[in-house]
Amino acid sequence: MQDEAARQATAWRLKNRHREESAFRYKGEWTHHFSPKWSLTANAAFATKYFPDITADVALRHYLKNDWEIGAHVGYRRVAAYTKRYEWNDEFFAGGTGDNGYLFTGWNESKTNLLTVGGELAKTIEVVRLNTKIDMHFFNSNFYYNAQIGAKYFPANDGKTNINAMASIGSATGNGRTGLCAARLFLSHQYYGGIGRPVYGQS
Fold first, then answer.
1. Which of 134, 127, 158 is nearest to 148 (CA)?
2. Does the pTM exceed 0.70?
3. What is the mean pLDDT of residues 134-154?
4. 56-95: b or e for each residue (b if 16 or more CB lie within 10 Å)?
5. Is the confidence at residue 9, as pLDDT, over 50?
6. pLDDT at 178 (0 to 100)
7. Is residue 49's pLDDT more than 50?
8. CA pair distance 112, 13, nearest whole angstrom
9. Rounded distance, CA 72 to CA 190, Å?
10. 81 CA to centre of own chain
11. Is the CB of residue 63 less than 8 Å from the CB of residue 69?
């Protein structure tokens, strides 16, 4: 009887796995140009699983002479944090100290807050855009950072097709060491579509 119940439970999980793994994320974004020199972008998102439960970002940008830009941003994430779970196994041979009697049985999930504060400097030279930025992250009473430089080349002059290269260095959250570097080079051709109504005026 127990074997049949286990078989049915396994069959139900396999049948409904796509439902269990389904996730939804709803996001809204608003951009306002206060003047030719200042703009503000704000967004918020809510998700069911896999993504942060709550996401909110605010970015302020100032346009300078000779195609220079500076920006500052702040972001909030309500994310999942995981800690290892151990249980004592009486049937396991513990050895001299008994430490080996604790067996890893899974992960405990909890919710925590991630706060990000950062700044950016960018320069456009005809069809090339250069930028550098630094982000500071505050997570579970710990501080992490990430510094990045990047370049975009727009060969088609359509504002969409671009070759994007970036390199970054920052703190490692996995083992506590710093100085991990990453670099990427890829071709991007983005397509946009949507429906909406423009809103004019101050708000």
1. 134
2. no
3. 89
4. ebebebebeeeeebebebebbbebeeeeeeeeeeeeeeee
5. no
6. 38
7. yes
8. 29
9. 25
10. 14
11. yes
Residue type, 190: Q
What tokens does 159 get?
Answer: 């504002």
Residue found by looking up tokens 């991007």 in the block:
188
Residue written as token pair 């605010």: 58
DSSP 98: S
Phi, psi of 163 (to 5 degrees): -105, 120
What is the tens place of the pLDDT at every residue in 84-122? 888 877 665 545 444 556 777 888 888 889 999 999 999
Residue 8 identity:
Q
Whether 68 contacts 61, CB under 8 Å: no
**DSSP bridge partners of 149:** 132, 167
List the structure tokens of 203: 């708000």
Q: Give the model's confidence band at 52: pLDDT under 50 very low, under 70 low, under 90 confident, else very high.
A: confident
- So what's the pLDDT on residue 199? 38
Q: Residues with Cβ < 8 Å from 29, sequence gap 6 or more? A: 41, 42, 43
CA angle 187, 189, 191 (to 5 degrees): 160
- E-assigned strands of 126-177? 128-139, 142-153, 162-171
